[in-house]
Amino acid sequence: MMADEWVHWPELHEADTVMSVPLHFWQKHRRTYNQSDLLAKAFCGKTNLPWIKNILFRKKMTRSQTRLKREDRFENMEGAFGLRDHEAVRGKTVLLIDDVCTTGATLDACAHTLRTGGARKVYAMTVARQV
């Protein structure tokens, strides 16, 4: 579904690589999978864009965003992500994949980390958006 929609957004075709929003190690261990990874894998299979795994990582366990106000969600995500290899993103346009966008706090924090690490541009795609 995301790949079918991607066709209609020419600016997203600038992407050099795809990344998924990471879960914290313990969250992934408890859940056994990352839904964003599953979406990115399927998306890349349809678009032939390369998927770079395990470069963007969640370095701190954050509180659940579910009951937080908008401004608290952004504060909760501050410093949550890190990059293992800046060269993997330097000068590249990254398409970030996640399942749901509510306030954009998580995507914003990921994009900030990627841009600080040298990414030229960061776009995001999600399956759903809360309105």
Walkthrough of the structure:
The chain is α/β, with parallel strands linked by helices and about 130 residues long. The protein has a single domain (about 1-130), classed as Rossmann fold, CATH 3.40.50.2020. The chain has 5 helices and 5 strands; from the N terminus they run αβααβαββαβ. The strands form 2 sheets. A 3-stranded parallel β-sheet has the order 1-4-5, sandwiched between helices. A two-stranded antiparallel sheet has the order 2-3. Helix 4 packs parallel to helix 5 (about 105-115). It is globular and about 35 Å long.
Topology, pairings included?
Layout: H1 2-6, E1 17-20, H2 25-31, H3 35-47, E2 56-58, H4 70-77, E3 81-83, E4 93-101, H5 105-116, E5 121-129
Parallel strand pairs: 1-4, 4-5
Antiparallel strand pairs: 2-3
Helix pairs in contact: 4-5
A few lines on this structure:
This protein is of the alpha/beta class and 131 residues long. The protein has five helices and five strands, in the order H-E-H-H-E-H-E-E-H-E.
Keywords:
131 residues; single chain; two-stranded antiparallel ribbon; alpha/beta; three-stranded parallel sheet; globular; Rossmann fold
